[in-house]
């Protein structure tokens, strides 16, 4: 599978302070909690669409409890030929939307309980999609490890979204820093 023109779509959790030691004695009302694995998280999600080089093309911000697949349409611009995504986007309405738009569907598939046939083909497909989709994860690594943005700084989605939009623009500059150095020389 060779990805020429497409988007890699993914989301990451951004923690928010869950403390109630403030003037209102309440947690941030725009943030919510969600369960990932056996761990509960309180905060927001940053949904990102990246191009084939891993550069961020579109961002959306929601509370943590919003499922990933509900934000897919807002992340797409309409010029994609292929969409790669993890299993969080494996829903019939997502596959139907991509088919109607004429976009090649490369969403990782879930194994359903009781499924006995086609497991090896499913694993091969998911492994190929994951190897390509890994480039889209680099933006999250730079955001959280290089820039240290693991927890929200403000109350509300609007302020945190504005800061994250700026940070994702800086992530793009960080990811192309070597190419920018060659342009200067």
UniProtKB/TrEMBL annotation:
Keywords on record: DNA recombination, DNA-binding, Transposition
Coiled coil region boundaries: none
One Pfam assignment: DDE_Tnp_1
Skewed-composition ranges (Basic and acidic residues): 21-33
Domain Transposase IS4-like stretches: 8-173
InterPro entries, alphabetized: Transpos_IS5, Transposase_11
Span list, region Disordered: 1-33
Lineage: superkingdom: Bacteria
Biological process per Gene Ontology, one example term: DNA transposition
Gene Ontology molecular function, alphabetical: DNA binding; transposase activity
Similarity comment: Belongs to the transposase 11 family.
Protein name: ISMca7, transposase
Source organism of the structure: Acidithiobacillus caldus (strain SM-1)
